[in-house]
Amino acid sequence: MQETYKTRVRSLGREGPWRRERQPTPVVSPGEPHGQRSLVGCSPWGRRESDTTEATWRAGVDLQCRVSFSCTASDVPEGAENFGVSGSSGVKIFMVYDPARVTEPTGRAYWPLDASVEVVISVDAASKALNDLKVKISYFGQPARGALGHSVLYLTGADISLDADTGRTGNVKRSQADKERWRWGPEGYGAVLLVNCDRDSLRSVGTDLTDTQLASRDDLQDMSPVVLTCDAPDALFESYKLVLNVPPSDSKRMRVFCARGGNSLLDYEQVLGPQHLSYAVARQPGERKIGLYVEGLSFPDANFLGLVSLSVSLVDTKTLPEVPLFTDTVAFRVAPWIMTPNTQPPLELYVCSVLDSHGPNAQFLSDMSDLALKASCKLMICPRVENRNDRWIQDEMEFGYTEAPHKAFPVVFDSPRNRGLKDFPYKRILGPDFGYVTRESQSTAVSGLDSFGNLDVSPPVVVEGKEYPLGRILIGSCLPRSGGRRMAKVVRDFLGAQRVQAPLEVYSDWLSVGHVDEFLTFVPTSDQKGFRLLLASPSACLKLFQKKKEEGYGEAAQFDGLEHQVKRSINEMLADRRLRNDNLYAQRCIDWNREVLKRELGLTEHDIVDIPQLFSLKDAYAEAFFPDMVNMVVLGRHLGIPKPFGPLINGRCCLEEEVRSLLEPLGLHCTFIDDYYAYHKLLGEIHCGSNVRRKPFPFKWWHVVP
């Protein structure tokens, strides 16, 4: 009578590239006849031990579970020298051996019992019933005699996996990429999470990310779908269970909803998230696919790199403690918040209706309405009841967006400034498919540099071969090691943590208000470069005035046509030593920035246009002497420029004429708008008093290589 011998089963894990369609998990099920091995096998993709054991994590392209049958003296019947292997339909058998020690048998020969010979098996499909697959090893002595004994391994195939949109196509597909890792670049892979920071339901009090119950089915579109495949005989789950897990550090960064059954909002249950680290999946009989929806709860920041993960484990419930037999993990990167430069097409122009000692700003609003109409841009007027007479809407907020392969939506970044407009972004901008984010400084007082007029972003640039396809964020600051004013660290940290628009600090602390928009802006052009950097230029202004003096127009006066304003002739301004010294200082400050911007944005002198402008110093800080023309609003090719009220020569403002001659050859249209009393006299201009939501980049941020 032939005997059946025990077999030692050993998992070898992954050692090679992924299959495009991974195969089900081979599982050795309990309940075989006495004397036959009873084990549950490894995941087809192994169980990760640590990032340092990478060599033990790969499997051949066609191998899903590597099982080695090793024999000891007690395992093998006496006299056995060779063995043969056979398996039922659906089981693939491979031999792994050292050709330096073992010669592959031919014909009816068998494999030698050698420690270097391993049997590798894989299962093609999920089993229909327990133990419906088997592998038999027969032991032989002399070839002429029959088998001396057998080892039999009964198997149950189970298809267990987590799948997300790791291919970044907008659809969930089984991927040949490594789901546990996230890779940047056009050849990269890895799933993306949106921060669910909009408010899809009017019943919600805050942003949707604060909801532990689904408030609207539209909210599902802001989440990343994940498919849990659990195809196996129902009887298997009498002894084993599926458990979803998130690491403790990730639980406050993400939330997972499980879709069970109908279309009611109650059918979507939160199963993971803050204070919920694991969830035993309630698999129904016959259920092969379970839908999950994952949302991000916070953008990347100083203490959060933006990476989170979700895992499913097959757990043996017969043991105490319960043992996870394998784990499949999907990594996600939380989508960043992205700024849009002036080169992106405008969608909405925001301005405020205000009232002061000079009356309402009705004419300014009318002029801005005309400009928006020319640019085919929607005008949004914030009424006084909502702005509480705070006109500086650029300083209060910055429009950006966030994007995943399946969806993008705008997100307003609310500054820590918190003046009259402090509630406007949250109460009026936040809504369906319009997100909200803010950062508040808890340790330091808010300064003027914390306003978002002190925040800009360049168009896409290439710097010494390094590409910045989404541009670089510009932050106004003090000189290095000077101890001056800087934007709040909490805001700087947030911007840097997004990783896709590498922030650059420039020098703005020389200005009284201290904002970058007081001396620079970008405009779109139709040439190969695609844009120009405009810099305020005292030297260009003084040269222009000197030229007009030499042409005989020295008595033409600045501020001509303005009531209640002292007029200054060109001769007087050129003879004013203090004014000239103030502007020599201002020019040195701008020149320092010029060199930084050329170096850090890869610009040449040809890429820069000098806009004539004068400044005057008050308490060692500079203010615009006349309306600051670089502080303009850019709506595509249409520019809304502060009217400078420069000297009139032949009935035309020489400053306006100079700016037109510089910008109109670039295909730009200049509209000069009077903001003198409503904005300039309050130390701001058109850009400070407006805000523009722009079209997102067509370039996908996950293609960036930081």
TrEMBL record:
The active site is at D395, H515, D517, C688. It holds the Pfam family PAD_M. GO terms for cellular component: cytosol; nucleoplasm. This is protein-arginine deiminase. Its main location: cytoplasm. It catalyses: L-arginyl-[protein] + H2O = L-citrullyl-[protein] + NH4(+). It is found in: Cytoplasm. Keywords: Calcium, Cytoplasm, Hydrolase. The keyword Protein biosynthesis does not apply. Residues 12-23 have a biased composition (Basic and acidic residues).
